[in-house]
Amino acid sequence: MSRRGTKLGIPQFLLVLLLGAATGCLGLRVSRVVVPPREVEGGAVQLECEYDLEGDELYSIKWYKDDREFFRFVPADSPPMQVFQLPGVTVDISRSSDRRVVLHRITLRSSGKYKCEVSAEAPAFDTDSGAGRLLVVHAPRSGPSISGVQHRYAIGGTVRVNCTAAPSVPAAHLTWLINGLEAEASFLIPYTTTTTTEGLHIATLGLHFTTAPSHFRYGVLRLRCVAMVAASYRRHKTVYARHGLPQPSSSCGLGRWCEGE
Ligand SMILES: *[C@@H]1O[C@H](CO)[C@@H](O)[C@H](O)[C@H]1NC(C)=O
Fold first, then answer.
1. Which residues of the chain have pLDDT under 70?
2. Has keyword Metal-binding (predicted)?
């Protein structure tokens, strides 16, 4: 929007004035707010706020997390920087300034919307803001686990297994592979993700199909579950079953058929 050096008729001028009042872009404006979309738990993040005063004088920069203020920079104050305690928000004041705020030791509670609000001194009192969302990633500590596998399946037998991801944030995206090929959608049984008291998500995906001769390569069926978290953590678990008559489940108690699990 061009605000200067253009001749405007009265109605246009009013429109620009109204737009300016609504968006705060008549004088000072926030040109860019940088909030990393994803960061791993325990790390540090740098939040950036770029602004143009456009002739105004700076009164304050305020940072909010989910609409609660945690940082204030007022050049007229001494000291100019002030920090307010919020859960999950630990400001590294030595690395912060009017243009950026560094948070260290981020936790799952650091996830949320971060807003930078810049205000001008009197007489303008212009205010503008910009925001971005941070999602703190909790990497899975181990691979997924597979349950319900039998050692042997007959042709025409039923495979009914589950893959459960290790707790993570965001929830793992699970995929089943049968002999290296992605299982068809009709074989999948999606289950609702559960959440632990610490806020970690546990995803489960079932696999259910009837075996055909093509499922056995040299008499072996290979099932693999892949867990993907935030497109950066990939873990998998593979199990093998043989072609043959399934053993009665009571045999497991004898410790003879079920060893090696
Ligand atoms: C798979 O998980 C679901 C949900 O937890 C459960 O109801 C079902 O019995 C499980 N099936 C197997 C084969 O483990």
1. 1-26, 246-261
2. no
